């Protein structure tokens, strides 16, 4: 479009369009009222650490992750308490052994936690990001160690800018070694959930690790080092999908760390009023920038909730400490929702539709998990009906169906499975081979079942039939498989 | 596109749309360019090293690269590892199969399962074309999953059938070939009545007389049931060798099975030949046994 044309366009826009004076020919985000909040791009964020309530909460919640490192060494009944035994397709969780047939419970566990994430985000924002996410926690620990080795943020910045020297290496190398060690501990512990931990140590010192173990430990260890040590907030801002998903789940009723603009503005430094001078009309914010200095992702919370904010609450600690010093009430930055600032009261948690829906699904998932665990049978039977032929005409006029039975023994003792048939037919005959199926613990036994029913007795092409399997050694272990007897179309 | 450039110093190409959307000319990072060029150098290497040129040489062989590598060779090598492993792992089982009789294999539960598990592909390749998947049968080809056996349903008899083959043999128009059309109609009705258990009804007396006159009882037995399994169908049961259709039954009686005149099949005769598989099967010594055990467990073994 030429300049002349564009002038005409904007002029006609001013004259006739409902947009009035808005310039429509130039569609900058700024022009349509979208404000892009700045993202920290000036190198590594070196956040200041100050004590406070949220700092304490963060440490307490982060310490949950210590279980990761201890977990593999817990023992139960002579085996590792928590073990994903992929080779044998068994998942051990203390006294519980879960076989692939029960893996749907895992789906329910995932559903529960996915909805827990949604529900907690709807109520109080990115709680996961701010307090519990392993990336946040590991980064927190890594920067804490960095401060121990290199000192306060200003010292660290200076050290970063200083030219390479022996002094600098002396400070940097131990830090990186410790980081790498944590990375190794993390990846090792992860792998130790999939294979016996003590055996893994033993084989490490005997140099007997396989390529899979070595690759996972090295790659995961180095990624831990790289992500927590170097990428830090860039992970949350640049490519963590959860950060974006959770950001989208926040609404006006969600409480998130918010700067109270009405109370804080206009901000300005406090100074002593000279005699004869009128005291400036300032808000409570003294523009000390401490909230920015402590932010691990380098955002300015005073610009409002933004996608760089992981709602860790550290700016609240910083601001409260300043408010205490200048003898003003705490809470200039506090957990609050947008709706509160517009003067409306927040509805009770249980009256919010999203919370109700999320909780309902969570209750369903939790119920399913409990049901699954309570009814987990030590026996599992699958009856595979022969597909070709579906049925056979026998010489004496009966119709024969064939099944292959798969009997899974999920218990700890050998099972002697006896197979019987329940049906309405008087003249039914059946053969099971072998007559009593012996199934070792944790394995699948296979038997062949032949059922014959006189053709004249069959009134339907498909007749329900019950295949009952019972452990002879332990009669309360039994199950019934509902199958269908297939015959020709009745004449 | 705007004619004047409000951003002359930022190195744009002068291509500007919608007032401010402009094309810049920023070079890619150095490492990226280096990888890009390295990629081209790798092409030369690949072309020389691998069979890239799709031409054949004078001998008709395709042009191999300097490495002499081919995909099929690599596949065969990999597959050989699996084959060798399989041979080594099951060597003792194969030896047992070769050494034992089929009846003994059937009694050994583990060996029987091994024979069944290793037969599925063989059965699909050599048997299912006629006998159907799982022995379900096909029109005019015997069902193997039922309990009606022309040549015996014991596993040793099944083994013999596979090994040496079977040729059905039924003369046309009775043993002497002298039955009239009317007599054939009568005996057709009689054998259908036999399978329905009504053979002694007085209305089929004429057919019964033809059954005796045509010497049908020589093979099919005096009561319609062969005395020993020798290829003749049991006429008293509910399974028909070819078809339960009356016209088809009559046709078998009129034209017989595998009836030849001057070395040619006569018109309308049923052709029913099971070939001998001892020459057709690879490694027949063991594979015939394996298949006999497999067929025995399809649903009607005796």
UniProtKB/TrEMBL annotation, chain B:
TM stretches of this protein: 30-49
Pathway: Energy metabolism; oxidative phosphorylation
Signal sequence residues: none
Molecular-function annotations in GO: electron transfer activity; heme binding; metal ion binding; oxidoreductase activity
Gene3D superfamilies from the UniProt entry: 6.10.280.130, Cytochrome c-like domain (1.10.760.10)
Intracellular or extracellular location(s): Cell inner membrane
Keyword Isomerase applies: no
UniProt KW keywords: Cell inner membrane, Cell membrane, Electron transport, Heme, Hydrogen ion transport, Ion transport, Iron, Membrane, Metal-binding, Oxidoreductase, Repeat, Respiratory chain, Transmembrane, Transmembrane helix, Transport
NCBIfam families, A to Z: ccoP
Name recorded for this polypeptide: Cbb3-type cytochrome c oxidase subunit
């Amino acid at each position: 479009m030429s300049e002349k044309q564009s002038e005409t366009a904007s002029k006609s826009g001013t004259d006739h369009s409902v947009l009035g004076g808005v310039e429509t020919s130039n569609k900058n985000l700024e022009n349509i009222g979208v404000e892009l909040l700045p993202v920290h791009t000036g190198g590594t964020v070196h956040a200041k650490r100050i004590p406070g309530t949220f700092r304490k909460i963060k440490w307490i919640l982060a310490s949950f992750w210590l279980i990761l490192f201890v977990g593999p060494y817990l023992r139960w009944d002579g085996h590792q308490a928590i073990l994903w035994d992929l080779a044998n397709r068994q998942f051990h969780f203390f006294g519980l052994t879960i076989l692939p047939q029960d893996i749907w419970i895992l789906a329910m566990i995932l559903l529960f936690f996915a909805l827990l994430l949604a529900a907690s985000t709807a109520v109080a924002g990115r709680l996961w990001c701010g307090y519990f996410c392993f990336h946040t926690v590991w980064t927190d620990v890594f920067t804490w160690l960095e401060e121990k080795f290199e000192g306060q943020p200003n010292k660290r910045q200076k050290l970063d800018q200083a030219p390479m020297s022996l002094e600098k290496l002396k400070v940097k190398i131990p830090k990186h070694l410790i980081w790498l060690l944590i990375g190794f501990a993390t990846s090792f512990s992860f792998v130790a959930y999939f294979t016996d931990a003590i055996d893994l140590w033993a084989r490490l010192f005997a140099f007997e690790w396989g390529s899979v173990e070595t690759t996972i430990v090295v790659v995961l260890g180095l990624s831990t080092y790289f992500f927590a040590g170097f990428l830090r907030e860039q992970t949350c801002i640049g490519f963590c999908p959860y950060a974006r998903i959770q950001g989208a789940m926040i609404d006006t009723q969600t409480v998130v760390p918010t700067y109270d603009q009405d109370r804080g503005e206009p901000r300005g430094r406090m100074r002593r009023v000279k005699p004869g001078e009128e005291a400036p009309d300032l808000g409570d914010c003294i523009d000390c920038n401490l909230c920015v200095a402590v932010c691990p992702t380098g955002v300015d919370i005073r610009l409002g909730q933004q996608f760089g904010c992981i709602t860790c609450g550290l700016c609240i600690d910083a601001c409260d400490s300043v408010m205490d010093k200048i003898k003003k009430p705490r809470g200039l930055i506090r957990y609050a929702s947008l709706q509160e600032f517009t003067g409306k009261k927040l509805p009770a948690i249980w009256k919010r539709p999203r919370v109700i829906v999320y909780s309902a699904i969570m209750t369903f998932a939790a119920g399913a998990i409990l049901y699954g665990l309570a009814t987990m049978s030590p026996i599992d039977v699958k009856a595979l009906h022969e597909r070709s032929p579906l049925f056979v005409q026998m010489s004496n006029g009966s119709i024969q169906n064939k099944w292959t039975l798969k009997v899974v023994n999920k218990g700890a003792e050998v099972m002697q499975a006896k197979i019987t048939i329940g049906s309405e037919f008087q003249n039914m005959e059946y053969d099971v081979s072998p007559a009593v199926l012996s199934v070792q613990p944790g394995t699948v036994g296979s038997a062949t079942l032949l059922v014959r029913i006189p053709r004249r007795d069959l009134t339907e092409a498909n007749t329900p039939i019950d295949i009952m399997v019972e452990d002879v050694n332990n009669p309360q272990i039994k199950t019934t498989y509902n199958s269908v007897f297939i015959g020709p179309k009745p004449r | 596109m705007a004619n004047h450039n409000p951003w002359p110093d930022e190195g744009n190409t002068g291509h500007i749309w919608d007032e401010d959307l402009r094309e810049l000319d920023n070079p890619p990072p150095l490492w990226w360019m280096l990888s890009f060029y390295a990629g081209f150098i790798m092409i030369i290497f690949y072309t020389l090293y691998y069979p890239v040129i799709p031409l054949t040489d004078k001998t008709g062989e395709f042009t191999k690269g300097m490495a002499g590598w081919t995909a099929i060779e690599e596949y065969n090598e990999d597959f050989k590892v699996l084959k060798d492993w399989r041979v080594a792992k099951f060597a003792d089982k194969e030896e047992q199969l070769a050494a034992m009789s089929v009846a003994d294999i059937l009694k050994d539960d583990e060996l029987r399962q091994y024979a069944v598990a290793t037969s599925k592909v063989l059965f699909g390749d050599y048997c299912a074309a006629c006998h159907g998947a799982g022995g379900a049968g096909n029109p005019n080809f015997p069902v193997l999953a039922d309990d009606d056996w022309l040549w015996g349903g014991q596993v040793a008899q099944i083994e013999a059938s596979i090994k040496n083959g079977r040729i059905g043999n039924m003369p046309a128009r009775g043993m002497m070939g002298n039955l009239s059309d009317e007599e054939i109609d009568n005996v057709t009705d009689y054998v259908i009545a036999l399978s329905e258990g009504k053979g002694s009804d007085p209305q089929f007396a004429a057919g019964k007389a033809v059954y005796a006159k045509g010497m049908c009882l020589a093979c099919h037995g005096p009561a319609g049931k062969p005395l020993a399994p020798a290829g003749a169908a049991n006429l008293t049961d509910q399974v028909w060798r070819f078809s339960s259709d009356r016209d088809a039954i009559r046709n078998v009686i009129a034209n017989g099975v595998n009836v030849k005149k001057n070395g040619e099949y006569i018109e309308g005769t049923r052709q029913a030949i099971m070939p001998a598989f001892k020459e057709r099967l690879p490694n027949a010594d063991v594979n015939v046994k394996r298949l006999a055990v497999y067929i025995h467990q399809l649903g009607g073994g005796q």
